[in-house]
Each structure stands twice: as structure tokens, then as C-alpha cells.
Amino acid sequence: MNNNEEALFCNDAFYQAFLGRDIPAMNDVWARETPILCIHPGGQALSGRHEVITSWQQILAHATCPRIIHKVDKVVSYDTLVLVTCYEWDERRPDNLLLATNGFSREGERYKMVFHQAGPTPIGPLERDIETTQPMH
Amino acid sequence: MNNNEEALFCNDAFYQAFLGRDIPAMNDVWARETPILCIHPGGQALSGRHEVITSWQQILAHATCPRIIHKVDKVVSYDTLVLVTCYEWDERRPDNLLLATNGFSREGERYKMVFHQAGPTPIGPLERDIETTQPMH
After folding, report:
1. Does residue A137 belong to any structural domain of this protein?
2. What is the ipTM of this complex?
3. Residue A45 and residue B80: Cβ atoms within 8 Å?
């Protein structure tokens, strides 16, 4: 895998942990030594591992935890940080389309998540992106 | 200035261009050679200089262009990319509070904007952040 493929792989791992409501996997996705930032839809700017992981534990443990399917991944590398944007469909609320940016940075050999920001995007992806992107994983 | 101070300076330049509806200044803020990504509130994932700059030209030229004041800046460096999160108050719509992340990367000697994502955050900043942050510039 090249760097971009590896970041997309880690992006998948994040959404698998989210969909599986898998707290240990979510713990493992996020960086441990690098500063992290997380902005949930409508939320505040969370920072630091304790604050960010606690927020995910609360989301994943909640009875109405969204069932997010990600599509239309786009990846851009800035060398030490790789950004992946993707659309998030909530299977529980199909009208609640979100757009997220996820950032990955290396810790040792592996990419770890260091940034997540998601917000509503009622109008959906650009047609160009749908056409040029791989089908949903 | 160290790297973080320089990124905060460029973040100010972005909001000055926005507030001044200054299209040449906005052109200058954004990177020319580095890949760029921009997600306006409720918008799609825009990429590439033409698409992103066109969107800003349309926003700045619009009669109801927001008058954004940024506050509570937080900066995190990932070496080749520096992220700044800040809250955006629209003077025209004080109830329309947004939270943005802006990314800056070097082109030659200067930091240039390579990433912007903003979305609504009705609940406002964490008290911790208000207390520990410099007053509004």
C-alpha cells in the first residue's frame, strides 16, 4: 500500500469501529502521542486523547448511536498529515447526510487518526465525485 | 514568529480578507501549488484552486456575505500542516455560530491556506477554551 491507500485503510477502520460500536477498536484508531482534534456535528472543539476518546465512548454506548456508512472518499496528502474527506450516511436517519474530514498521521509505522470534523451537508456529493470515486466499500 | 504564531497570523489574514470582502487578498491567502480542500457550512467537498477560489468569489461578492469575527483560536502543528480551529460569529446573524478548522502549509517561505471546513455549533465554545485563549483580535 502507498501512503494514500494506507490512510484510506485507516479511514475504513475508523468507520468500522463506529459502525460496530467497538470502543477498543476506536481507542486503537486514534493517535496516542500526537495532538488530536475532534469536532462532532454541532459540537465543540474537543482536543486531547482523554476528551476525544470519552466523547466517542459516549456516542458508541448511546442507544441511538448513528449507523454511519461512508462513501465518496477523497484523499489529499500533506506529507506528515493525510486528509480524507467522505460523506457520511446515517442508516437510522437517511435524511441526515454529513460531510467529514479525517486526518491521519504516523505514529511509528502506522497511521493514526489525529483529526475528525463532521457537519451536515444537505445537498449531497458533487456529481463529479460520485462518478470518479470507487463504489461504496 | 514561530510556526504556530505564523499560522495564526495567516488565519487572521484569511478572516480579514473574508470580513473585507477582499477577493485579491483571499486569492493570496490560499495555496497555489499545494492541493486544497474547502467545505463551506452545509456545502460539498470543493477541491482544486479554481473551484475553491470561485466559491469564495461568489461568497464575497454576494449582497448578504456574512461578516465573520473569529475567536477562540487553537493551533495544532503536524509539522508540514498546521491546523487552527476557531469559532466564527456572523455579525449579521449572531445566532449563527460556526466552528471552523483551517489548515496551513508552507509554499516557499510563507504559510498558505490549504484546508477550510466550517459547520454550525449552536452550543458555543467550551468554557475552558474561553478562559485560556487570548481576547478577540
Report:
1. no
2. 0.91
3. no
